[in-house]
Each structure stands twice: as structure tokens, then as C-alpha cells.
């Protein structure tokens, strides 16, 4: 799965180049930094890698979502459609900018169901956020077509899918913009960090300014203190050490993906022996970043028995229906509208009127699917012995 498994000499070298200058800030310090601009270089390298025209580095994948939503003009009064199987950060960001998350079902792709998306579009829908979950792509061309007909921008939450492509085209480049996370368990990690990519120069400019208190970054005699501002912003700036680590990690990304694919193929071949097994649908299997392997059984009862055997044989798999961080019915704080704001925002207006109520049983199709589905995270360092042990465990589950 993650880049933390391969941190080594390249990352150390990159960090030392930053420490040698003593400049940790991505802007200014022109005299002191000896031409070292790691965050800027990382943005350029990430844009080149994904084929996007522009990239904006930020402090996290959550920050990337917030900055992108702000730049797209999303705010109070708006609805944003995402999916009920994602990390909590996706809808936290939507609530944080003042909009209301609307949850679509997932389908066999384990990402947004385009048909349910169509049903959930209203005249308040300001953005659509499909999530390329578990390293593989959503049915993004279909989703972008539906959104395009309705005139709504698509923000691809690609936090888990760096290195994933469809027909050679990177996820994150199909919609108006795409966001990535470099947190400690993502394929490419900088400890904490995020990136937004886009082909829209105006959108990138807005992101660049918003993420840095509104600074327009235009050269002027007053330096940073003399820069102009067109609107209020916030601070989501990435620091040079993160940019440095990102450069080293990005150079390893395609090798990491290749290793993950090899491991995934081995396990998938073994899992094919499970009676009634099916694998998630992918628009382009060859472009899978292969960070996870998801498989579904015919019914929940069978899934439970398979999970028990795999666990007892030392090869436990995740059931996301039970996972409290990634699945709608398990988000009790969202369902209850729990918040630190004394007047109930963002679930209630300052006057106390409830803005939104989330029903626990709102996504029956997703629940049915997730209860039948198990997931293996794919590690980079899997020994031949470990792979064989997992294959044997799977063999036992197959002969149930
Ligand atoms: C990890 C993740 C995020 C948030 O990224 P952070 O860098 O941890 O803030 C957002 N969306 C999804 C789908 C994620 O998996």
C-alpha cells in the first residue's frame, strides 16, 4: 500500500538540500534559498506526471478538498453530491465550506453510482465529488458526462488513487479538478500533504490565492507585504520539507504501483477459486493503482464465513460495512448532527432550524453491497512466504 515502506536515501537527500539552505517556507527568502524551491518543483513534477496543466500543493487531502470547493465558489445554500463510501474528510470539507453533502449510492465500481447521481441532482447542486476509492477509478467519464449536461463541475477526490489511470489518462484530470492526499497511509506520502490538479488556469489562480490568505503572488517592489488580494483566504501552505519528500516519493510512484499490481494479481488469482466471488468493476483494469483488492461474495452469510476462515488462517480482510471511518451508516456523529458549535452549525441554522437530517437507512444498495464485500490492503513489502500463506488461507476459504 503505502510509500512509508520505501522511505530511504532519496528522501534523506532531498530533505538535506532544504536544511542546507535553512529556508522552510515555500515563498520569499530569495537571497538565502540558493534557488531551492522544493514545493514549487514538486507541483511542477506532479503536474507533469499526471498530465495536468497546473498543480497546487496544500497541507493535506482534506485541505485540498476545501481549497478546491472554495475556488469553485461552493458555499452556504449549495448542495454537493458525493458517495456514502468514502473517508469522512470528503463530507467534512463540504460541510466546512458551508454546503450540504448529499450522498449517492455506490455500485459495482465501489464508487459513485451514475444512475443514483442523476436522481440526486437538484437546482442547488453546485459540485459533484466522486471518490476514486481504494486506488481504483470511478466510472468517471459517465459521471463527467452527466455533470456536464447539468452544467455542474466535477471535483475528483483522488486522495487514494495517485498513479491510477484510465486509458493512460490520470484520475483527477477528467473533471474540473482533482485532489490528492499524501497522508501517512497513502501510496505517495509526505507525512501530511495534498495536491490539487486542474487544466483551468483561472481555477488554479484562485486556489493559489485562496490557500495563502489571498496573496496574489505577483512580483512587486514591496515583496510579499505589497502583494494584492482579490478575496479573503486561509492558510493551507505546504512547507519545503514536504515538497522535498514528495519529489523523492513521486519518483518512486510508478515502481510502487507496479509492485502492488504484481502482488494484487497473485492474490486475485487465488481468490478466483471462491465460489460465487466477483471483483469490483473497473473502467480500466490496466490502470489500477492496486493499493487494495476488493472482492464480493454472493450473500452476506457467505462473506461472514469466508472472513472468519481468512482471519483464523492469519490472512484477515477488511469489511468496510463494519468500518466506522469510511461508510455512511457508521458515521454516527454525522447522522446525529454532532458538532462543537453551540448553535448547531453546520447541521442547524443559527436560529436553531435544522438544515439537514441524515437517515441511517438512506443508502440500501450500498449497504447490501458492502455487507458482501471484503478488502485486502496491498503492501509493497510482501515476502514470497507471506503471499503463499495468504494463498493457502484463501484456498481454505474456497473449500468451505
Ligand atoms: C485520506 C483521504 C482524504 C483526506 O486526506 P488527508 O491528507 O488525510 O487530509 C480525503 N478523501 C479520501 C477518500 C481519503 O482517503
From TrEMBL:
The lineage of its organism: Bacteria, Pseudomonadati, Thermodesulfobacteriota, Desulfobulbia, Desulfobulbales. The keyword Protein transport does not apply. This is 8-amino-3,8-dideoxy-alpha-D-manno-octulosonate transaminase. Belongs to the DegT/DnrJ/EryC1 family. The gene is kdnA. The keyword Isomerase does not apply. InterPro entries: DegT/StrS_aminotransferase (IPR000653), PyrdxlP-dep_Trfase (IPR015424), PyrdxlP-dep_Trfase_major (IPR015421), PyrdxlP-dep_Trfase_small (IPR015422). Keywords: Pyridoxal phosphate. It holds the Pfam family DegT_DnrJ_EryC1.
Amino acid at each position: 500500500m503505502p510509500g512509508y515502506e520505501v522511505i530511504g536515501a532519496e528522501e534523506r537527500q532531498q530533505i538535506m538540500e532544504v536544511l542546507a539552505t535553512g529556508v522552510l517556507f515555500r515563498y520569499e527568502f530569495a537571497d538565502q534559498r540558493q534557488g531551492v524551491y522544493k514545493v514549487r518543483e514538486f507541483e511542477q513534477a506532479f503536474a507533469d506526471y499526471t498530465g495536468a496543466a497546473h498543480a497546487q500543493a496544500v497541507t493535506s487531502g482534506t485541505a485540498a478538498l476545501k481549497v478546491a470547493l472554495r475556488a469553485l465558489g461552493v458555499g452556504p445554500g449549495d448542495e454537493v453530491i458525493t458517495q456514502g463510501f468514502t473517508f469522512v474528510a470528503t463530507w467534512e470539507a463540504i460541510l466546512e465550506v458551508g454546503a450540504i453533502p448529499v450522498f449517492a449510492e455506490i455500485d459495482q465500481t465501489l464508487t459513485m453510482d451514475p444512475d443514483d447521481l442523476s436522481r440526486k441532482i437538484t437546482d442547488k447542486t453546485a459540485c459533484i465529488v466522486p471518490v476514486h476509492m481504494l486506488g481504483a477509478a470511478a466510472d468517471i467519464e459517465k459521471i463527467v458526462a452527466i455533470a456536464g449536461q447539468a452544467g455542474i463541475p466535477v471535483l475528483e477526490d483522488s486522495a487514494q488513487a495517485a498513479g491510477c489511470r484510465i486509458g493512460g489518462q490520470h484520475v483527477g484530470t477528467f473533471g474540473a479538478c482533482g485532489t490528492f492526499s499524501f497522508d501517512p497511509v497513502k501510496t505517495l506520502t509526505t507525512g501530511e500533504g495534498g495536491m490539487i490538479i486542474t487544466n483551468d488556469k483561472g481555477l488554479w489562480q484562485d486556489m493559489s490565492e485562496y490557500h495563502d490568505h489571498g496573496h496574489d503572488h505577483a512580483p512587486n517592489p514591496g515583496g510579499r507585504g505589497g502583494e494584492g488580494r482579490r478575496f479573503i483566504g486561509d492558510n493551507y501552505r505546504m512547507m519545503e520539507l514536504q515538497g522535498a519528500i514528495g519529489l523523492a516519493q513521486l519518483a518512486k510512484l510508478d515502481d510502487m504501483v507496479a509492485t502492488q499490481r504484481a502482488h494484487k494479481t497473485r492474490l486475485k488469482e487465488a481468490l478466483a477459486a471462491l465460489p460465487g466471488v466477483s471483483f469490483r468493476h473497473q473502467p480500466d483494469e490496466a490502470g489500477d493503482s492496486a493499493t487494495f483488492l476488493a472482492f464480493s461474495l454472493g450473500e452476506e452469510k457467505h462473506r461472514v464465513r469466508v472472513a472468519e476462515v481468512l482471519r483464523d488462517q492469519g490472512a484477515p480482510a477488511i469489511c468496510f460495512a463494519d468500518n466506522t471511518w469510511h461508510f455512511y451508516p457508521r458515521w454516527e456523529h454525522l447522522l446525529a448532527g454532532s458538532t462543537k458549535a453551540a448553535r448547531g452549525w453546520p447541521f442547524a441554522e443559527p436560529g436553531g432550524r435544522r438544515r439537514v437530517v441524515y437517515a441511517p437507512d438512506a443508502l440500501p444498495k450500498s449497504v447490501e453491497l458492502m455487507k458482501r464485500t471484503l478488502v485486502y490492503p496491498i503492501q509493497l513489502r510482501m515476502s514470497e512466504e507471506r503471499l503463499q500463506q495468504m494463498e493457502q488461507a484463501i484456498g481454505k476459504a474456497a473449500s468451505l
